Amino acid sequence: MSAAGEQLQRVTQALSVAHKGAVKRAALVLQGEIKKTLSQPGRGRTYKSRGVTSRLARKGTRKRAKQEHVASAPGDPPAVDTGFLRASVVLNPQSDATVHVGPAAKYAAALEYGTVRPKVGIGVRRGPSVNRKHLANVLRKASASRSLVSSVARKGTGRLLPRPFMQRSLDAATPQMTDVIVSDLRAVVVAFRAKGT
């Protein structure tokens, strides 16, 4: 093999190694952005929080059991109640170049897409929405319990309007993720130029 061929092989191998690390770092950026989006306070209705109440009851605290929770308004990201959804956001490496990032909570798809279709009227278009069968399939793939999947397939989950957080997080994190990948790969190229090999 010629000297130019060997150099090209070394550069390609170094870029491949740097790409793996850059993808993981970009996935961490997205994970952080999703958690940040899920940390925003709610702007919807206020009610007595079952999550906070049950958590405090287990601790034996009765004084703070009447805490109220401000829910998210439709169209806003879900507001934090127990923090389970935010804590369930995980990285799931599929290969060297692919990492799935998202919540493992079984109800995440219902929050992201909603469970009802909007009514069509003047100025309202019917947008993409999740129907019962699709949501049941999503839950089945997420290893939800059989009773939950069959219940959703039969009668839906109620009237939950979308509270999107994944697409919003991806849109906010994309420039920073791109910068991470480009800077890591650029560093490899600069290092090879500095070596002169």
Please report the number of helical segments: 7
Approximate strand percentage: 5-15%
Structural class based on helices, strands and sheet pairing: mainly alpha
What is the general shape?
A: elongated
Instruction: Return the average pLDDT rounded to an integer.
Output: 76
Task: Give an account of the 3D structure.
This protein has 197 residues and is mainly α. The protein is 53% helix and 10% strand. It has helices spanning 3-37, 50-59, 84-87, 108-113, 132-141, 146-155, 166-195, and strands at 46-48, 68-70, 89-95, 98-103. The strands form two sheets. A two-stranded antiparallel ribbon has the order 1-2. The relative contact order is 0.17.
Task: Provide a brief overview of the structure.
The chain is mostly helical and 197 residues long. The protein has helices spanning 3-37, 50-59, 84-87, 108-113, 132-141, 146-155, 166-195; strands at 46-48, 68-70, 89-95, 98-103.
